[in-house]
Structures are given as structure tokens and as C-alpha cells.
Amino acid sequence: MKENKDWNGKHIVISRADSIGDVLLTLPVTAWLKEQFPSCRITFFCRGYTAPIVKHYEDVDDIVKTDDLFTLSKKEQADTIENLGIDAVIHIFPKKELAKLFKKALVPVRIGTSHRLFHLSTCTVRLDFTRKKSPLHEAQLNFELLHPFGLTEIPSLEEINRYTSEFVIEKQELPKEFEALLAEKYIILHPKSQGSAREWPIEKYIDLAEKLIVNGYEVVFTGTEAEGELFRKKLPDHDKCHDSTGKLSIDQLIWLIKNAMGLVACSTGPLHIAGFLNIKAVGLFSPRIPIHPGRWKPLGTHSTTLVFDPKCPKCKAKKDCGCISDISVETVLQEILK
Fold first, then answer.
1. What is the pTM of this model?
2. What is the pLDDT of residues 207-256, one digit of tens each?
3. CA 272 to chain centroid
4. I need a surface site. Which of 81, 162, 274, 334 has the fewest CB within 10 A?
5. In angstroms, rounded to a whole number, what is the distance separating the alpha carbons of residues 275 and 258?
6. Cβ neighbours of residue 148 closer than 8 Å, sequence gap 6 or more
7. 20 touches 53 (CB < 8 A)
């Protein structure tokens, strides 16, 4: 079954309650829907910590934080959704609890992948495609769920890139110790990923920081407080090296990234933020499927990715491999200095 009608004036929900990078790569879907149906209303269901990301995207009308929703009783959860007057929900990130909830709230059109068993009983429209073995980028795969809205062809990454311009942030006040940075040339280094990706060794980030300082840049290390505790004692003792770990809100981090000359990270949220803001985003990746750059490279016209060996035999065989560690500091430095 496929829906294909005029969705102008209708209320459409995008459901993606997972991480920052995943959410960012989903946002272009909302821009496409607004292009096709300018008067539709779009509500984004997401986790609380990604809501500050979603709020900066101009094509999202409302946000529902799933963390808050799940603090309510089962009846209150269903009543909350029913009271929103939703015409369709697109389950871009399959989550059983939410799929059951939208069914219980009698949302008329419920769209999801056919590759989740619980969608057989909870979705009215099921699309047959697989993410795991697809050659498409994650942002393109999200568009697979728009066929019921009249999409006939998956857009190219170049076409999707134009939707990054909808991500807009106003000036933010930074902690005083970082305000002066905005007048300087600085590079952001984000070494950790909270375990979501293969990581480049912290020793190489520190070596890179020292080389960037020699080349006239200020360097800012970013991350959570817990991540900072893992490496801050190792950072160069230099007035051009700054530790912001645990000191910035997400809004402040976005503003810091927006004004940077570039950012280096593995496949994690800040890398995708940099891509959306169209600054030089240098992503360090493993070539292993499905975590390779073909699937997860950042969007944006100034984004680039590095792997040590695109044909790494261990990665190809899906064996444990740390070849990302073999990417040289000089290679990353030259990519930044291009």
C-alpha cells in the first residue's frame, strides 16, 4: 500500500529518537516535505539531548522530546499523541515503543520499513529496503521512506547538500575564556565519540594540535566532561591550546563550530554539525561496512573524509581492525591546510 495525495495542511511526524549525527542526516527529509507541501506542519520526535539541534532547522515546526513523553503513563502517552492531530508518522528510526504508541493513538498513516517485525502490526505502509547492505549514504536512505509522499527518485548527495542551508543558529554567548577565540583562526579537535565510532588515538590529536599551533592556529578540544577527564591532562601546555570539554552547552558548541576554520573528528555528532555549517569538516573513518564514509561522511560542500586503506583486508572481512589509527598526523594536517 502506498499513500500519494496532497499533504498540504496536514500534520506529519518524523520520528528519529537516536543520536545527533543520525538526527542531522534526517533533517533534509523535512525540507523536502516542505518543498512539496508548503503548508504541511512537521513535528519532530527526538531525544531531549538532540532537541537543541532540531530547533535550529527551519523546516521543523514543533518538537516532542521522547524522554519527556515516556515519563507519562501509557494512557497519557497515547492521549498526548492523539491530541496532536497527526495525519502521518514516518518511523525513520524504528522504535517498538513509539510504533505501538502511534498505532494506539490511531494515527491514520504510519510508515516504516518492512524489515522490522513489529512494523507488521504497527505500520499501515511498509517500505521494502535495507540499510545494512545498501551502497547509499544514510541521508539518502532516509528518503526511502518518502515514496508514499510522491518521491520517485532518491536524491543525490549534492541535491541533499542544499538542504543544509536550513540549519541556522543565532549568535550565542560563550564562556568568557573562549570569547576571544572568535577573532582568531582556530581549529576544533573532537577526539571522542562516546563509543559510537572507531576513534583516532588521542596521542595523534595532541601531535596534530602541536603542529597546528606551529602553523599559526589556535586549537580547541571539545567533548563532554567525562571525555575531557580521559585526555585533558595530556594536552599541550600552551596558551594557544584550549580545553572546552564539559564547559559548553550544545548551542554554544554549535556557535563555536560555526566560527571555526575547521574541525577534525571521527564519525560523531560534531563532525556532522560542522558539515551542516559548511566549514571544513575532516572526518576520520574506518572503511569497514557499514561504518565506512560512503554511509556516514558528513554533508556539506567543505567536508572531506580520510581512511588509511580503502581496501583494508581486515575491514573487508569484517574482522576487528584498528587501521584508523594508522592515518598519519601529517595527512590530516595537510587536509586542514589545503
1. 0.95
2. 999 999 999 999 999 999 999 999 999 999 999 999 999 999 999 999 99
3. 5
4. 334
5. 10
6. 2, 3, 4, 88, 109, 111, 125, 127
7. yes
